[in-house]
Design a protein that fits this description.
With about 200 residues, this protein is an alpha/beta fold. It is built from eight helices and five strands; from the N terminus they run αβαβααβαβαααβ. InterPro entries: P-loop_NTPase (IPR027417).
């Protein structure tokens, strides 16, 4: 990851799209890009979800390009507005977008030249630690952005942080998420998008 951070900080592409499955380290990397304005798509999605009267996590279907056109158009418009508001700075967009057509729609026209960085989890132990940390933060703040929340049973939610039960659950979820990440990477590659793969 350090090599990628140094490369981006040296080359200074105007637009960087940073994606990965939940908990892979998008925010960590984006915050290390010197002078870049960061747009966290989860925040855009949550705000739009409230404006459209959606119940969380319904609005996160936007990442799969799977919501009605008014929502999709508003999502892309918010991103383009951020680009315009920060026209003097380089911008990194971080989010778990899983649809190639949506990536192309966002990065089109004036924004067509961009660097696509894909964080690819390969270290299970590190990924489990990141997911556990994020799960704890989201549980405390009552946020549910991690994709694993759909798998969380009441027993898991009540399990002690760091318990054997919690660790085993997180290991299963890490493997599940890593499999999903590999499929998504292959899908983006097959769709013809040029990516910088960063193993994490």
């Amino acid at each position: 990851m350090e090599e990628t951070i140094a490369r981006i900080n040296t080359l200074r592409p105007k637009y960087v799209f940073l994606t990965a499955t939940s908990g892979a380290g998008k925010t960590f990397l984006s915050n290390r890009l010197a002078g870049y304005k960061v747009l966290e798509l989860d925040e855009v999605v949550k705000k739009l979800g409230r404006e459209f009267g959606m119940e969380e996590p319904e609005e996160f279907k936007v990442y799969k390009n799977n919501l009605p056109e008014p929502f999709m158009a508003a999502f892309v418009e918010r991103i383009h507005t951020f680009f315009m508001q920060n026209s003097e700075s380089p911008v990194v967009v971080e989010g778990a977008i899983a649809d190639a057509d949506l990536v192309r729609r966002i990065f089109s026209g004036l924004y067509a030249e961009f660097t696509f960085v894909y964080l690819y989890p390969v270290d299970v132990e590190q990924y489990v630690m990141r997911m556990m940390k994020r799960f704890k933060e989201e549980k405390e703040s009552n946020a549910h952005a991690l994709a694993i929340w759909t798998q969380v049973t009441p027993e898991i939610e009540q399990a002690a942080f760091g318990s054997v039960e919690m660790k085993e659950f997180m290991e299963r979820m890490a493997h599940w998420s890593m499999d999903k990440s590999a499929l998504r990477y292959a899908y983006f590659e097959k769709s013809g998008l040029d990516m910088v793969r960063v193993d994490v």
